[in-house]
Amino acid sequence: MTLLEEKDQIPDVIFPPSDLYSDEPPLETELHLRQIMYLLESLEWLWQDRTDFYAIGNLTIYYSPYQLKSSDFRGPDFFVVLGTEKKPRKSWVVWEEMGKYPNVIVEILSPTTATTDKNLKKEIYQDIFRTPNYFWFEPYSLELNGFHLVEGEYQPLSPNEQGHLWSQQLGLYLGVYEGVLRFFTAEGELIYIPRETAKQEAQKAFQAEQKVLQAEQKVLQAEQRATEEAQKALELQEEVQRLAAKLRELNIDPDII
Q1: Cβ-based neighbours of 51, under 8 Å, separated by 6 or more
Q2: Model's pTM, two decimal places?
Q3: Helix H segments across 74-193?
Q4: Residues 65-95: pLDDT tens digits?
């Protein structure tokens, strides 16, 4: 029996209050936290002018009142909901969000969660959430897999030449850069996080300053050469004048020589 068939057999219930706090366990490693922050910071930086999405990590998704009776399901490590209001939330409560589920989900695998992420969660995201794009990433082996929903079933995404996987929902690629899962534009350019952007701008400013200094140095060198040439011309003129004076002492007119 599928998850949907089981769901259909559940009688109508009164939904719990919507003011539900997230109930996620701590992230397993610092690497998991840093990975989630890279995804969150880069997407929010890229879409800083947009207010029609919600992106978050390690937050509970409440999708069924019966879910509250079990701790078997934990929220995704990272997810994005499109077409919604960008505002802080204590959790994602589907029945209070116009029935919206995540458009994109990313799970960061670990030895204790990999089996669940690749099986039970994948089935939930496919059959209940109907999440169009699902990815998982193993931060130590750098295993990256992605799926897109086709006629109700997940089909594997094929990587491009760089090994990146396309998210049609985000209009971005996901790929590994320096051991971290990152977003890339359709043209393959890395999406920076704010501190990387600041570093890039600082490098550009430094390079521009260096070019100005080099140009100023060239001007100074040109001015120095011009000064040296003028000094040589003056010295030559003084020498000519001394020779002319010497000739006159010998009663020789230098102008007729």
Answers
A1: 85, 86
A2: 0.71
A3: 114-118, 120-124
A4: 766 555 556 789 999 999 999 999 999 999 9
